[in-house]
Amino acid sequence: MPAKAAFFDVDGTLVKTNVVHVYAYYAMNRGSVLGIAGRTLSTAVSVPLFGVMDVVNRKTFNEFFYRYYAGLSEDRLVTIAQDMFEDVLQPALFEQSQDLIDQARRSGCRVVLVTGALDFTMRPLARHLGVDDMIANKMQFVGGKATGKVIPPIIEGANKANAIRAYCVKEGLALDQCHGYSDSASDYAMLAVVGRPTAVNPDMRLRSIARAYNWPILDLK
Amino acid sequence: MRPFKTLQKLYDEESQVVITEKGSPPRALFYGEGFLQEDLPVGTRVIFPRPPMAGVPNVKAAIRWAINHPEGMEPLHALLKPGMRLTCVIDDISVPLPPMVTPDVRQSILEVVLELAADSGVDDIHLVIANALHRRMTEGEMRRMVGQKIYDAFYPDRYYNHDAEDPDGIVALERTSHGEEVSVNRRVAESDLIIYVNVNFVPMNGGHKSMGTGVSNYASLRHHHNPKTIRESDSYMEPKASALYKSNERIGKNIDKHLKVFHIETSLNNRMFGAPTDFLAKKEEDYTEGDRLKFQAMRYALSKMPRAVARKVLSAVPAPYDVTGVYAGATEPAHQKTLETSWKQYVVPVEGQSDIVIFPIPFISPYSVNSILNPLLVQVMGLGYFYNLNRGVPLVKKGGVLILLHPAYDEFDPEHHPSYIEFFNRLLPETRDSMKLEHKYEKEFAENPSYVHLYRKGNAYHGVHPFYMWYWGENGRQHVGKVIVAGAENNHVPALMGWDRTDTLTEAIEEARGFMGRSATISLLRIAPTVMVDVK
User: Measured between alpha carbons, how far is A184 from B33 in angstroms, rounded to an integer?
Assistant: First the structure.
């Protein structure tokens, strides 16, 4: 039996947050106490905008959004990531996410998260879920400070499919035996590239795609 | 004295076998969610179900008598001890078909048993549905099966579906002498006493199959749910001719060695239709003008409805079965009694096999309750169940033709049958060979985490279930020379199944005669309700 993996998108698939929540958390916990009020206000204004941008174009959104990390030190980001996991991600985990991951492992799959979020923000979640690997965006750091730029290629949309394909080649996995899980039609490429795609909590577009292609539809909510 | 001719007529009216004559009325035949009215060629042998046997006059009294006079075991009250751990394992919604008018006989049994248990100081009681790899029953279905009072008292913590994929919920017992794995639900395995609550709808149910299959898992089931065992089973309905039964027997004996199981088996008559559709159980010769009118009205109305609506309408009519017997005690002696009653109700003796056999396929199967009879289930009804409704030899000759009446639509229920969709669209175009399917794909489907999740958390059949459905038709497939689906509304479903198709039954009979010769003999099994043949 060839080695295989299960690739899980995170936002909306395993947790009911999306990357905007993560940004909001960082924005509100970035610096001095005095600055928090102002930033919270500006965040409150910008988050809906980001929400719209996220729907329109995930790539533009990511590029724009990660600029806000510029100047923050790596250890600070990692510390906030841990808090953010406890405050935001863990409570937002779908009840059955862990079951699904455990089931994938029992069926002999290596479990890999594939996410457009930054790797340090997802690491505590990955540890918590007990996954084997993670394909995520990586922030560029110079002298221990974030530049606000993401090391290309940015993991989103079609690039998720490329990253999965490259990962399988590197790790010697049979792509047609691999499973893919996502909630969003923007991840159609990621689902189409694996042999065994599944729509999880799908949006309307993905639901209709899944029906057209006879992909299983799971509801973890 | 009456003239001989009149006596002959009376005798014929009582017989369940009618030979079509020139003036015979057209037959009312199931055709998926609708009905056909068809004239059959002169000489066609039409086999009707027996009339319903009389039910026991007082079901609860019969249950009490059975548990106080069990076969090969002490009476139930003597087995109940204060503080003991008791588990009632219950047959799932796959029987009877259609579901029975409430109160379901399972409710009646539980009402008696739970009261007795309470009086005996037993309060650690769980109710586990023996759904094996079938879909989980929904809350509404569970409530209907046991009644509101029991449901309120036990659901959800102490009344639930068996989960064959719960990693902590299964216990492995010792293997059988043939190396078969024996796995049982953990709560069941750790109980001091198990009461199996059975509804015996066909002779294949009950006995060792109840525990050996119902609360087991894939690792155990694959030892008999496989193409080899199915090929070696001459009839599923006759224990001595069934390799499937023998494997279940070995597994069941192992279970009986380790666990204390008190079976309560019930047999039902075949009163499948109440008013206003009771005419469906009659011979067409006996239809009144009112019956004919009702049939035409129903046929017309169903043909004008969208299929989903027709399905809802038909599913909404429960069956007024009567309980014909209650037997309790040890697995084998209790089941033997059930089998005797079951055969008495269902078996019709017939003379000789036929070259061509016609099976009208109704809208329902054990695997499509409140759902859709998808193409794989049409296949299992024809080549699996109906083909096997016999003792001795099949109704159709070796190399003969089976004609199935069904629209054979390409429709699936993604909630109940998700893995069927992949099996049908991905695997069948590659091969129909059961051995190859088992070897190459079974494990992949069984372990697919998405299908496992849908089985455990949704209401989906286990990922491996479509394979079992395909294997189920295996001995039928090996036996017949040709299958024709008459009235198929498309070409691709019959093509994928390896069947011929025709628009009408008349064309199908013509084609079958072309294959078997002009003098080919024809039988029609007028089902439902259930009928089995004893071919002499």
Answer: 37
